[in-house]
Amino acid sequence: MISISTKQVELFDQAIGIRFVDKLLALLREEFPVCFRGLPDFVCKTMVVNGIQASLRCGFTLQSYIGGFVALQCNSSPDFFLHPTIAKTLAISNREKLKYHYLMNNVPKPIWNEIKLSTNPMAWFNNNNNNQAIARLSYHVCSVFPKITNIQSEAQLFLLFTIAKEKAARYGVNWEEGIAIFAVALALYGSRLDEINGPTWSKKVFFPSRLSPEKISNLLRLRILLDTDKII
Hints:
single chain, mainly alpha
């Protein structure tokens, strides 16, 4: 099991500074625009910070190596280091320079192709960290509906996803995909979505009787699909 030494924590405290995160994010956005397209800044920064933390757990402390590690996450999959071949490569040496050299030069191309084919974008986020729930939700929504990011400020987005989580919970929708559907519906149809004076069609979803959480979620998703031709 990989552990972080005191020295690594101290270096991380320096590396995690806002300037480093901002600089690294700017470079990554330029090199991997698709990876961050349509995403709010707070989501992108969460991704980069989590990438830095993953690189530290894998034994990298120098900023140049950390940057290269996060770039590999962008180019393959954020959890690429969990692949058995990558894990073995990272375990070859405790020397940071050699570890980085092996990672960059000794992993066969077919392995990288395999990782890319099974990429899991949500692995950018820590599912066990409640503080990242809004960032995960924002990624889920904004990667499909980038216009939502374009027309609302970061503060408005944060409020949107907070309200979506509360409204969804009111109807028993407590899974992330369902909350994402509520967020898109609120952005498209307004905050009165589930009120008696809301959109005409929504009355069949929320009134007069309570449908199951799954039924409500599916009906909202269908309406969004009909209106936008996009699946959330």
